[in-house]
TrEMBL record:
InterPro entries: Trm112-like
Native species: Sphingomonas zeae
Superkingdom, taxonomy of origin: Bacteria
Source taxonomy: Bacteria, Pseudomonadati, Pseudomonadota, Alphaproteobacteria, Sphingomonadales
Gene Ontology cellular component list: cytosol
Protein's name in the database: UPF0434 protein HP438_09445
SUPFAM superfamilies linked: Trm112p-like
Segments traversing the membrane: none
Family: Belongs to the UPF0434 family.
Length: 55
């Protein structure tokens, strides 16, 4: 499943406000700056720090 490029351009890490990298294989949005990976569930990015996985 792919993420809408328009959406990806607008999403930023809620901690650092930096752009995110889309990891299609893991279905996650990765914030290199924060060291966190935010899950994508049923096509919806879950941008909650408490739901993120530490890298």
């Amino acid at each position: 499943m792919s993420l809408d490029p328009w959406l990806l351009e607008r999403l930023v890490c809620p901690v650092t406000r930096t752009p995110l990298r889309y990891d299609e294989a893991a279905e996650e949005l990765v914030s290199e700056a924060a060291g966190l990976a935010y899950p994508i569930r049923d096509g919806v990015p879950v941008m909650l720090v408490e739901e993120a996985r530490a890298l």
